[in-house]
Design a protein that fits this description.
Shape: globular
Strand order of the largest sheet: 1-2-3-13-4-14-18-16-17
Helix content: 25-40%
Strand content: 25-35%
CATH topology of the largest domain: Aminopeptidase
CATH class of the largest domain: Alpha Beta
Distance between the termini: 21 Å
Number of helices: 11
CATH architecture of the largest domain: 3-Layer(aba) Sandwich
CATH superfamily of the largest domain: Zn peptidases
Number of strands: 20
Largest sheet: 9 strands, mixed
Radius of gyration: 23 Å
Length: 441
Amino acid sequence: MREETQKLFQFIENSPCAYLAICNVKKELDRSGYRELLEQDEWNLESGKKYYVVRNDTSVIAFVMPEKNFKGFHIIASHCDAPSFKIKENPEMKAEGYVKLNVEKYGGMILSTWMDRCLSVAGRVFVRDGQKIRKLFVDVKRDLLLIPNLAIHMNRDMNKGVEYSVQKDMCPLLSKELSKQNVKQIVADELKKQMAKEIKPDDIISMDLFLYNRDKAKTFGAEEEFIAAPRLDDLQCVYASLRAMTEVQGEKEAVEERECGAGSSGAYCPVMAVFDNEEVGSSTMQGADSTFLADVLIRIKESMNLSESIYRQKLAGSFMLSADNAHGVHPNHPEKADPTNKPVLNGGVVLKFQANQRYTTDGASAAYVKELCERNQIPYQTYSNHSDITGGSTLGNIAIRHLSIPAADIGNAQLAMHSAYETAGEKDFGYMMKLMKVFYN
């Protein structure tokens, strides 16, 4: 597992924002023989071939084109965004001899965890290139910013609880006031290094930039059994689904299997969906509440010349795993957990339940996942909210508004969800990858 864990850490480090996470997913898919499709083009899909399509740079759907007698779709959905700060337009603000940045909150953050640690900036920029507008991705890979706490001497009630104002307390320090550096200049300098070409700050038309935590991912614990990293929710599930998807059989392997007598009858079409904007409700053109997944499945149907009736039959025979991390029982606050459904780190894949269906799992879908785990010696555990505490939601129940298919919510148990630095179990990551590979293959 340690080798796989190090690969996860590298993926997280290279994915400081949703834009770069999808860039890294694309690289892995390209290396594994997947071909990129564009939504605005006509698709000529061939059975057994591997494809993927990206929407608005931050969501991707990959699939292996099935034979006509396939049973349905096996879909794993996860999300690539994480709570952070987005840099506003005209961000520089002068204050008492310093320059700080004007930022706003993205998602449900634990604000205090972003203070007194080195931060940087990543995202996408749009640059004027002659008569054209060019899109570029950028990661300023250095300790650039810091949000300083107020000293205990100036707030003696600090340890009694502080209500933070994002506008007042959370503006990151960039430079001294006399510095000639601003965000556009810093981004332009980084792009110049990246492209070996002069980029002037005035060439930058617009930017989508997010702050990220520069702390490295690491293992810890008496037996190094725990992992700590930024953005574990939900890059851990994204990477596990990506590893499973890159090991799905393609055309050559499928032909060899048929020649051995296994045949393709009863096979499922594997689909990996990585969505953006789960942390802010998914209601964007690239979120789980968009038509993205449905659009792709319809185009698969059209390429296969399936009737509407046959397509509905395929959907009825499909299944989705909504993969988003789960709350582990907290060692200092066990009273916050449900008395009988409280997952522990390294205890196995978590199957999530909620009566109001913010998690999609019901008796039927739970039975399927439990049986899949038991047949393949994969440990699993269950999660429910404490009945007096309102829990969060995820992307599964949102995605199936557009596709009426059975689904179950799963995840890895973790602590400090939505912190700038989260904690999980190393073994659980291995269990999750195994379950996803079994589900696809």
